[in-house]
Each structure stands twice: as C-alpha cells, then as structure tokens.
Amino acid sequence: MTTVSHALSGKGIVAESTRARVIDTARRLRYRPNAVASGLRSNRLGILALVLRPLDTLESFQPEGVDYFLRFAGAASLSALEHGYGLMLLSDPTLPETPSVALAADGFIITEPVENDPVIDLLQTEGIPLLTVGKDLGRPSYDAWIEPNTAKITRQVLHHLEENGARRVAIAVGTDRNSWNISSEASYREWCSERGQEPLILAQRETSGTAGGRAIGEELLGMADRPDAVYCLTGRHAAGLMARLAESGVGTPDDMLLVAGSDSEQTRNSVPPISAVDLEPEVLARAAVAALVKQLGGEPASGQAGTDGRFIIRGSSTRL
Amino acid sequence: MTTVSHALSGKGIVAESTRARVIDTARRLRYRPNAVASGLRSNRLGILALVLRPLDTLESFQPEGVDYFLRFAGAASLSALEHGYGLMLLSDPTLPETPSVALAADGFIITEPVENDPVIDLLQTEGIPLLTVGKDLGRPSYDAWIEPNTAKITRQVLHHLEENGARRVAIAVGTDRNSWNISSEASYREWCSERGQEPLILAQRETSGTAGGRAIGEELLGMADRPDAVYCLTGRHAAGLMARLAESGVGTPDDMLLVAGSDSEQTRNSVPPISAVDLEPEVLARAAVAALVKQLGGEPASGQAGTDGRFIIRGSSTRL
DNA sequence: ACTCTTGCCCAAAACGTTTTGGGTGATTAC
DNA sequence: GTAATCACCCAAAACGTTTTGGGCAAGAGT
User: Fold this and answer.
1) CA of A16 to C1' of C7 (A)
2) What is the pLDDT confidence band of residue B56, given thresholds at 50, 70 and 90?
3) How far is it, in rounded angstroms, from Cα A235 to Cα A65?
4) Which of A5, A70, A82 to mutate to probe the B interface, most B CBs <10 Å?
5) Assigned fold of B47-148+281-308
6) Quick check: A77 and B91 CB within 8 A?
7) Which residue of B has its CA nearest to A95?
8) Parallel, antiparallel, or unpaired for β A130-133 and A145-148?
9) pLDDT for the residue numbered A66
10) Domain spans of chain B, in order of start
11) Has residue A79 got a pLDDT over 50?
C-alpha cells in the first residue's frame, strides 16, 4: 500500500520500474485514489471556498450589475482547477444552516469583507487559512489580502476628468464599509486637498441600484454650486444618476462629466456609454487563488495590489 | 461516541435530555463534526458538482452573452446550500488534470451535455449520480434530466411572430448537437409543415458571437425570397444579425421581425431592444438541484420540463 | 570481515467519523 | 415469576487513504 501511495502521489522513493508498474496496473484496474479518504488522512481535501460577501447583503446572486462577481467566480474556479483544487461557492458560513462541509475547505477567499468581518473571525478560530480580496479595515495588521490599486485608479480617473475640463469633481460612494469605498474616498480627499478644493462626497447604499443613482442625481440638481463632474463608484448608480440628470436637462457629457468606478452592463449600454474602470475581476481572481495556494503551501502571506484596473474611456467623460 | 453521533445527527434513538446535554457540551467545547471523516465513513461528502458544458468549448467563462450560465451557477449554489450541500464549480472532469476531489462529489449537474457526452460516461462508470439540464440526445432512455419546455417556447415565439404579421419565419440555430438546438429546430419544422411552409434553417457556431450573427445577416441579405422574420436562438447572434441587416437598410422591426431564444445583455441593450425568451436559469437551477437531491435520497429520476420560459416582448418583433 | 549507507519495500497505526451488534435496566404481557 | 419488549447507551469495526518506523539486500568504506 505504501508503495502504491508513493508511486501515485510521487512522494516517497520508488524505483522507476515499480512506479510504472503501479501506474499501469492502476489504470488497468480503473483504480482512483479516494479523495475523501486521502483528505481525512492528510488533512487536505483539495477544495477552496469562495465567499462573495457583497452578495450576502443583496437579495442573492442577482445578475444585473453584479457581473463583476460572476466573472470573478468563473475565473477563480478555473484558476483553482489549474492549481489542482476544486472551488466551492458559499454564502456567509457563519449562518447556522451552513453545511458542515463548508468548513472542510482547505482555504477561503473572501471578497470585499465588511469591517471586522465575522466570517474572518470564524475562520480564524477554526484555523482555516484565508485570503481576502480587499482589506478588512478593522484588521490593519492582517496581511493576507489582495486588492485593486485603488489609489492609482482613483487618481487616474480624477486626472482624466480634470483633463477633460472638469473644474469641480464630486465622488459618489457606497455605504458598505469596505476597502474599496473607504480607500477611494481617501484618495479623492487627498486629491482635493492637493488642489485646495472642498471635497463633495455623496453616499448611497450599494443595494439601491439605479434608484440610488437617481437619488444622487436629485441631490446634485438641488445644489447651488453644482459640480461639473462625478466619479461614481457603482455602475448602477452611475446609470441612474445620468438618467435623472438628463430628465432635468443636465446632459452628459456636455453639462456633467461622469465616470463609473466599476464597469458593468449598465455602463456599457447607457446612452452615451459611461466611462468606467474595469476592475478585471479575472485578473484579481487568478491572483487571489495563486496567493491562497501559495499560502497553503506554507509561504507567508503578504498583502499586494492585484490589478491597476483598465480604464475604459467612453462618451460620458469626453467632450468632442 | 455513538450517542454523540446520534444526538448531533438526529439519527438513532437518544433521550431528549441526553441529546440536549450533548448539544450543549458540543457548543461549549466548540466541537464540530469533521465533514471529511464523516464523508469517508458515510460515503457522502455533502458536495454537488456543476459542470457547465458549453463553457468548456468557449474560451472559458467569458461573461458577455453567457450570463445565462452565470445566473445558473449562482442560483444552483444557493439552492444547494439550502439543501445542505456545497456546490463545486468544475470544468470537464474527463480532462487528465482534473483534481481527484472532483469525483468525490455526491452528485453532478451537467448543463447542456453534448451528444453521447463523455462526461456522462465517466460518471456512470464511476457510479456517481448525475442529472443533466437538457437531454443527452444520444441517450434517449436516460431519464435524469430537466430542461426548458422547448416545444412550447418555440411555438409561442412562432405564434407571436405570425400574429405580428410575419409571412415567412426562418430559424437560426447553433451548431452544438444539444437538446436545445435540436428540439427547437424540430418544433420549428413541425410548425412549418402544419402550414405547408418550406422551413429555412440557418446555423452558426455558438462561439462565433455577434460576428456569427452578422454572417447570418449576410446570408439573409443574399436571398431572393428573404423571410420577413427570424427566430434566432442565441442572443449574440440576434444582435449581430440585426446590426448587419440595419447596415444594408433592412430595418427591425419594419422590414424584419426578430426574436432571440435566450435573453442576454445584447438583446436587452440593442436598439431597438430584441424580444427574447428568458429561460429563467434560476428556476431551472433550483429545479435541477432539487431533483438531484431527491435522486441522492434514493428516489428514482424522471425527466421533466423545468420552465416554460418567460417571453419578453420588445421592440424588435412588434410593429406599432 | 565488519559496519554504514542507500535504495527500495512493507506492516501497522492513524485520521474522525458512522454503523453494527450487542448489553442493561425498566416496563409490560402472560 | 418468567419472558418479551422497549428505550437507551456503548465498544469495536469499518471507511480508504497517508505516514511512521522499521526491514532487507546490495554496494561502499575501512
């Protein structure tokens, strides 16, 4: 048995001739090692778990405007397979109905954890390795994360708006206390203070969709010193915002420049199409899986930027 | 040990007081049964696997136009969790690099298997329960499937086109030999013969995207007795087709009525928007998971229609 | 001639559950 | 008063691997 195990796993020392014989016989007998038994003994099942946190607050896996997450999940799954792991899609594992197999995963990827995320607490007490996509702001010393280079992306967008004639740029963020919202806002504030400008920050819940975007538009319309550009993190907000402004005769891009922080169906298909940052979830997902696998192999974790994003300039932020 | 096992799983006969004491103690000690050990003994891991077959032929998990599958995966995942299972996303498990944990799943869902799908062969020789979404046409007697009610949907679409003035309807199908393509075509032929019409069937590879749609448009433009309506199964084809026709002055819906067989980003956002059948992947996914779980529980499998689709009428098929 | 490696193989223990097959004392049936 | 039935609990086996700790030749070093 030992020899077979070694021959098939490539671990111990087995004569090449013996290994060949074992492998051949195994094929002939259609023998495949039982992954569960092997998992029990070696304490390694070969499964990664993916928890898309923002979807736990939405009414579950709606497709519209959340294609970011679906692209992420698909790419993560393929990447996991390439590393020899299966990928299990989970929702919040702190919920009592969670199947016990959830915690049997070898490691977790948590996207956009909330501040002091209880999911992370659970995994840490269980001793399960994890990696977050986007920092947990309540754990500044926690080091296993990967995220877009938000500072760079924010500055790039703001620079673009300025170059296209914006005199005063507002930012519209979501209300979730996650790394993306907070760092984007911080970078924006920094940029404003460099220019001696008063920051203008509008917030709407992520879940509010285009209606939330309309509410932002409403707010802007009511302002005496209305800004002439908005960097709106959520694609759905951006679309709603643009629609609301248009209804009151404030045109994009003529009267208002607009950029969305995350590309989505809505930003691509509005009229005019909305400039947006493609956060390249595929790139991020592959990086996250690779980092987690490395961590499972014993290497120490370390936070890093996984993508600089791809800024797609469309009609909403360029005047001809 | 037996008593604890029984108390926690609710299986054997345990005095209520004992059970309470066990549960309480378990909580105090933060004891959780090890899913892998339990899986080894009981031969039931608590994981379902999902193989989205059409994505194995695409260049892997592209989001555009395949939101059907992503909606399916999300809904399947949630539904699996509700049934106490985790859901593992896999690509073709017959590939040699497949992690061995793939075959440790308790059951498989295979969407749109190809004819005589080798994945099904593999699972059957391994004795792993499976359910297909869309029949495998090479296995007429195989009974564990669920699929949209293609016949009903096709007739509904054709009826709608006829009602809106179509005199001659063509169908544009994909080239994959899967149940959707074949049954749609069969229903279409039947409908034609009922009317004594000559069927006109155009085929393009699914992977060709909007370019394939343009090719269909090209073909139509070259025809002397051009039909005045097209039922185009793939949303991306429909969008490309409409764009190509428009370039040659053939307007939709004025000169050509158009309906897509599967709703997607492209059909929603074309100008005019394209009428389409929403195949309700969420409904199908939930039905598939429920049926598979039932099958795992020992009940016999039986094929059935999972959804009648939701026909969304838009501008491309209605003349004012 | 003797130890010491080295290369290879093997028996047995271990992983943490579930299941099997009793076992015990209390209640009921005759 | 004995047997039968229950309700409950328990010891030990079993699931299919990996890992541990030798063991046995053959060659190398002295």
Assistant:
1) 11
2) confident
3) 7
4) A70
5) Rossmann fold (3.40.50)
6) yes
7) B81
8) parallel
9) 58
10) 2-33, 47-148+281-308, 150-279+311-317
11) yes
Q: Which residue has the tokens 């006109």?
A: B200
Superfamily of domain B150-279+311-317: Response regulator (3.40.50.2300)
Where do runs of H (alpha helix) occur along chain A? 2-9, 16-28, 35-42, 53-57, 67-82, 118-126, 150-163, 179-194, 209-221, 235-247, 265-269, 281-296
| Amino acid at position B275, single letter | S
Across the interface, whether the CB atoms of A87 and B91 are under 8 A apart is answered: no
Span A3-8, average pLDDT: 91
Residues 246-275/A with CB < 7 A to strand D = none
- Tell me which nucleotides of strand D come within 7 A of a protein CB: 7-21
| Residues on chain B touching A283 (C-beta within 8 angstroms) | none
pLDDT (0 to 100) of residue A164? 96
CA distances, A293 to each of A93, A263, A296, B306 (Å): 21, 28, 5, 38
Q: Is the CB of A30 under 7 A from strand D?
A: no
* pLDDT for res A62: 54
Question: Nearest CA to B106 among B80, B125, B129, B74?
Answer: B129
CATH number of A150-280+311-317: 3.40.50.2300
Which nucleotide in the DNA or RNA is closest to residue B5, CA to C1'? C18
Query: What is the C-alpha to C-alpha distance for residues A125 and A114, in angstroms, rounded to an integer?
Result: 18
What Cα–Cα distance (Å) separates residue B57 from each residue in B62, B67, B139, B205? 11, 16, 21, 11
CA-closest candidate to residue B23, choices B10, B11, B13: B10
Tell which of A9, A27, A44, A88 to mutate to test the B interface (max B CBs under 10 Å): A88
Contacts of B104 in chain A (CB under 8 A): 34-36, 39
**Cα separation of A233 and A238, whole Å?**
8
- Residue A255: its H or E element: none
Nucleotide nearest to B31 (CA to C1'): C16
Chain A residues in contact with B89 by the CB 8 A cut-off are 73-74, 77, 86-89
Give the pair of three-digit tokens for residue A132: 């977050």
Please write the tens of the pLDDT for every residue from B259-317.
999 998 789 888 899 999 999 999 999 999 999 999 999 888 888 888 999 999 999 99
Of A33, A37, A81, the CB nearest to B90: A81
Residues in chain A: 320
pLDDT tens column, A14-63: 888 889 999 999 999 999 999 999 999 999 999 999 999 887 766 555 54
A290-307 pLDDT, tens digit per residue, is 999 999 998 888 888 889
Q: Is the CB of A29 under 7 A from strand D?
A: no
pLDDT band at B14 (very low <50, low <70, confident <90, very high): confident
Question: Which residues of B fall within a CB distance of 8 Å from A73?
Answer: 70, 73-74, 89
Average pLDDT over residues B134-149: 94
Provide, in whole angstroms, the distance separating residue A42's CA from nucleotide D29's C1'.
40
d(CA A82, CA A86): 9
